[in-house]
Amino acid sequence: MEKMIDDRKSLDRRTFVKVCMTSLSVIAANPLTLAASTEGVRSHNRVLLRKPDGEPVTSSWLSEHRSAIFHYPYVTTPCFIIDLGRPVTAPEGSAWPGGAGPGSSIVSYSAICAHRHSYPTRSASFINFRPEQITYVNRDDAQVRGRELIYCCSERSVYDPAAGARVLGGPAPTALTSIMLEHDPETDRYHALGTLGKEQYDVFFEKFAFRIALDHDRENIREPARDAATVVPALEYSTNQVRC
Ligand code: FES
Description:
By secondary structure, the protein is of the alpha+beta class. Helix content is 19%, strand content 31%. The chain has a single domain, classed as Rieske [2Fe-2S] iron-sulphur domain (Rieske Iron-sulfur Protein), CATH 2.102.10.10. The strands form five sheets. Strands 1, 2, 13, 14 and 15 form a five-stranded mixed beta sheet that branches. Strands 5-4-3-16 form a four-stranded antiparallel beta sheet. It has a four-stranded antiparallel beta sheet with strand order 7-10-11-12, with no helix packed on it. The chain has helices at 13-19, 24-29, 31-37, 59-65, 201-216, 234-237, and strands at 3-4, 41-50, 67-71, 78-83, 106-110, 124-125, 127-130, 134-137, 143-146, 149-152, 157-160, 166-169, 178-184, 189-196, 228-230, 232-233, 240-241. The protein is globular, with a radius of gyration of 17 Å. The site of FE2/S2 (inorganic) cluster has 12 residues, from loops. FE2/S2 (inorganic) cluster (FES) binds next to loops.
């Protein structure tokens, strides 16, 4: 069972430092940084991200594919892992840690839309990472352009993956849930460790139980991800990517 990291006796300090993608020296020098970073974080199983061939995902593989899908913290809950191709730093005071990996460019979020929980399936995805320039309506009802955004074409919610997936436009009430990543610079391996922000899983399971069970051919749709999760390039994961 998941539990809040506030009760984080079991969370080893070294792992936590990696979660926050913050150097040990900075944390040691400024304990307030550590305290601020724990807000809203939930620990889940530490899960290795691996490619479809079974080998661990590497930074160059992520860079090649830009956007990919894996399932975490449950075996049925889809997430994006995205290489934004540029360093992504957290806004000041944010609990979101910014980008991971050698270029601080790798981010990961739940792919379950915070509005009505549209999510990528093998047949179709209405919510996608859009590296190209797109036009959307922002929260001031102005038509604006942007690139490298996550766009849900169900009701046109737009999220900024370079800023903790905050909502830029559309009816989504909250940001996408962040997936906390650990990157080991020696092995270039990535692990998922937990989530940050509002989780949507209970309502997702209630709403789509039958479909999820069919899609994944399993009865226990709430099975936690353990040990390893397979990461599939987004363009290969869904047969139809709906782009608006
Ligand atoms: S489900 Fe994504 S915008 Fe409505």
